Amino acid sequence: MTSSPAFARLWFGATLAGLGGQLTIVAVMLHVFDLTGSTLAVSMIAVAGLAPMVIAGLYGGMLADYFDRRSVALVAATVTWASTALLAALAWTGTESVASLFVLSIVNSSANSIVSATKSAITPRLVARELLPAAAALNGITVGIMVMAGPALAGVLVALVGYPWTYTVDVVLMLALFLGLGTLPRIRPEGATVRPGLRSLADGWAFLRRAPNIRLQYLLDVIAMTFGHPLALFPAVGSVLLGGGAITTGVLTASIAAGAFLSSLFSGPIGRVHRHGLGIERSILVFGAATAAFGAVLLAASFGVLAPEGVGEDVPNLPLIAVSMLLLAVTGAADNVSAIYRQTMMQSAVPDAIRGRLQGVFMVVVAGGPRLGALYAGVLATVTTLWFPPLIGGVIILVLVTALVRRSPRFRAYDARDPQP
Q: How many whole angstroms separate alpha carbon 193 and alpha carbon 229?
């Protein structure tokens, strides 16, 4: 970070703002449940916000490829901050409603997707190309901190001081992002620019059609997130198979984030690897194998392996929970290593003038993949059993990724010293 103080300030601000954002995301879910008593209403927050977030990400990418990226990020961050401040104001005055929580949550996530797409397009202008893997690893640390600490801290704050103070903490933490963005120089796109609109979007998609390496990494990520994202099963796993209830659900979720966090801390050797396509393939294969192994553990739990008498909400199967935590940490680490390679490839192989739009498409992949995964896991577990989706999903990942990469020798031969999209 010493080689780029501007990136260091941006990273620090984004980390604090991301932690605050997690507080608001979890607090809104708890708030909606308190007002409605409906799990369906809580799940609809994510469903209702998906389309606006995708549209905002795509349009934000077009804005980032035409206007000063610093200004685009600042305006979008201001909208995010204002929506959170309004949430806090409504909570302090006791005038919040389910509708207001939904609307402000959607505005918040949509504006934040523009910030994320623009910030990613800014990064290659702040750090040298050989340092992009390190920058991506630092972003992995940010995600790990957000996912590990954010939900737990939100639950504690809501329980101890209530919703108004929880939203207010996010309002304060997000000010750090303005420090990071506000101290940047003006960053105009390099090369020919296209005014935001259908032509700009078409140009972005046309470039993607001519970029087989970028296109394939998107497809591989969608496959991994669709068939290897069993988070929707964790509540039932904690209640029925492994026992321990909500505590088991929490530690399983945290294990994934812990794996991502630790892999970022020890990611130094990644920067010395030049075969990024091969790195993506092997990382996702490890991810798929660990996912299938987690399904096998759940299968063993269904047969009562190592289960104490009366296993259930109050009696956990500690040995199998420990093995599950280890396997899920491996999936988090493997996914993060893949993300480092994918992000570095995208930031170095995509021309600056088109980078914002490709980051916008990336936001669609990031937002859509886990939601497809939740749908896959939920539906398949409903018609079969809890252990089947991760077990068969891991196998599907292994088969599809191996087949697709073998059909694309150019992807396997990708060399970061000569980045080609």
A: 38
Output the six-digit token pair for 316: 């956990």
Rounded Cα distance, 25 and 34, in Å: 14
Q: Where are the alpha helices (DSSP H) in 183-244?
A: 198-209, 212-227, 234-236
**CA-CA distance, 313 to 94, in Å (whole number)?**
35
In this predicted structure, the answer to whether residue 341 has a pLDDT above a threshold of 70 is yes
Q: Which CATH class is domain 203-421?
A: mainly alpha
If one compares 268 and 220, the residue with the highest pLDDT of the two is: 220
pTM of the model: 0.79
54-58, 115-119, 242-246, 267-271: which range is least confident on average? 267-271
Q: Considering just the CA atoms, what is the radius of gyration of the chain in Å?
A: 21
Q: Does residue 230 contact residue 375 with C-beta atoms inside 8 Å? A: no
Q: Look at residues 402, 416, 420 and name the one whose alpha carbon lies nearest to residue 131.
A: 416
> What residues does CATH 1.20.1250.20 cover in the chain?
1-189, 203-421
Whether the Cβ atoms of residue 21 and residue 174 lie closer than 8 Å to each other: yes
Q: How many residues does the chain have?
A: 421
- Residue 376 and residue 379: Cα distance in Å, rounded? 6
Task: Report in angstroms the alpha-carbon separations of 242 from 271, 355, 383.
Answer: 39, 45, 20
CATH number of 1-189: 1.20.1250.20
